[in-house]
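Re: [help] complex structure
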Amino acid sequence: MLNTLTPATIRETANALANVVNRTPIITSRSLNQQLGGLKLFLKAENFQRVGAFKFRGAYNALRQLSSEDKQKGVVTHSSGNHAQGVALAAKLLNIPATIVMPDDAPVIKRTATAAYGAQIISCSAAQREAVSAQLVDQHNYTLIHPYDNDHVIAGQGTAAWELIHDVPDLDIIFTPVGGGGLISGTALAIAALTPNIKLVGVEPAAGDDANRSWRQGTVCRLTAVPQTIADGLRTRFIGQRNLAIMRQYVTDMTTVTDQDIITTLQFVWSRLKIIIEPSAAVALAPLFCGHYHLPTGTKVGIILSGGNIDLTQCGFFHQLND
Amino acid sequence: MLNTLTPATIRETANALANVVNRTPIITSRSLNQQLGGLKLFLKAENFQRVGAFKFRGAYNALRQLSSEDKQKGVVTHSSGNHAQGVALAAKLLNIPATIVMPDDAPVIKRTATAAYGAQIISCSAAQREAVSAQLVDQHNYTLIHPYDNDHVIAGQGTAAWELIHDVPDLDIIFTPVGGGGLISGTALAIAALTPNIKLVGVEPAAGDDANRSWRQGTVCRLTAVPQTIADGLRTRFIGQRNLAIMRQYVTDMTTVTDQDIITTLQFVWSRLKIIIEPSAAVALAPLFCGHYHLPTGTKVGIILSGGNIDLTQCGFFHQLND
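Output below.
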């Protein structure tokens, strides 16, 4: 199925999803632009997407295109994060049975949110997730919805940039976070379809720079352990083959940020922009915000804020208040 | 100066402020509407206003109308909260010297934000704030910008509802928080000017229900101590005479919420709507959200989310991350 995707796919996908996904707002800030030396930033706020993250786009796009027979059999995925919730809601809307394999130690809040969309949850140890999912596919003929190594998922994720490019004319460059590569490869295709001269930069937590290395070397580099980073949505050990192929063709640059950069950026966004984003979303803004990446004054920059799902029970503020 | 305000004043004010204030977004949520039994809620997100709260509207409106001579002499106010920041930014924009009298124990973050707008800050004990301000007025002929008992401030605050009513046709009812009464009296005048049939409900923390009692009794009731509530923007001991006069004429109902109601509502807004609001802003939504106030299915409800300034250093999440 590698490389069945073309820029035209994104156009069809954007039309197909238009009435299902939220057309999320684009946020601008005078003070942020000033602070960054006169850049013009446009933040695509996918924290306001359904399920709180862009992942709903790809999940819905994959599920809507299953055959009637496959829809009846159901789907399975093994994410404990935003992709799980995306699949669960898409399945609910399309009346497809969904099973989510979650590690025992997944936060209660994520388990609850996923279950609330009506998905069946199966617990196992983190190490067994893939095996358990594969077993379910064998037993029940479920379709596995891979979180990023899937053409329909990639095309769906690309619709966020599709909207951004339509809403902000003359963008010069777009930054996305990179985990498995679903968002950045979809974004690449949206750019290619609409305005190929827009540059595209992928940002990764420094603790797991496999996508940076893969993109530079042209082969998928695999980390031996799950990277330790606050950006919980980007704790992938390797990107997909099809994601790498698209990235090699369209991505202009790749860079990394430290967890401290992520936290500094997160704190600014919460306190000054007044929106809740998750650490993984701060990753795309961090290189500019922390002064590690320089662009000429006046550059029009798109940033994909990927999501806003964060466990507020970690927030002492609410602890204190609930006491 | 009592009762120089008319609904027409709001119209002029809205026009005068249109290019200075942010026209803040109106937020809707499918899941919130469902959860509240099919109400249609429209949240006017003044947390996205300049300085992070509606208070900028009133402050700017008061300062812009000073005589040239008074502008040159400067202004003073004695707030440690959002009004202080509103006055400081308005003064900066209008090139007016501003002095803010702040209690010694004001949070560092508020002091820093106010100073960042270029205002002079004078510290004193909390009990001496009024006296110190009065002294500064005497010494320097500063104009005191009262946070709510001031016609221009009231008219400015009313422009938030003015925008809301323009952007959402056929609203049935609007809820605002009540501290000193500036926002609700401005809102009342906006309703009177545009669509007098919209009902208006004021909500107050139960710990300080002086506005509820004042409105029912028709005289200003004064609390002997500052009310102990998490809603730090509403810790006023009494409302203004001119605010009461307007409230008696236009307000349909008043109600109260507990701190637990405020926290429950705040947590929902942060975690599900993905926006940062402060406890005082949650107050207006809390009666409906917590099931204490019932309206028929389909009712179109406007809620003024008053602001989003909150000290995130209280948030253990960032502590933990910064360690």
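The beta strands of chain B are 26-27, 40-45, 75-77, 98-103, 120-124, 143-144, 173-177, 199-205, 253-257, 300-305.
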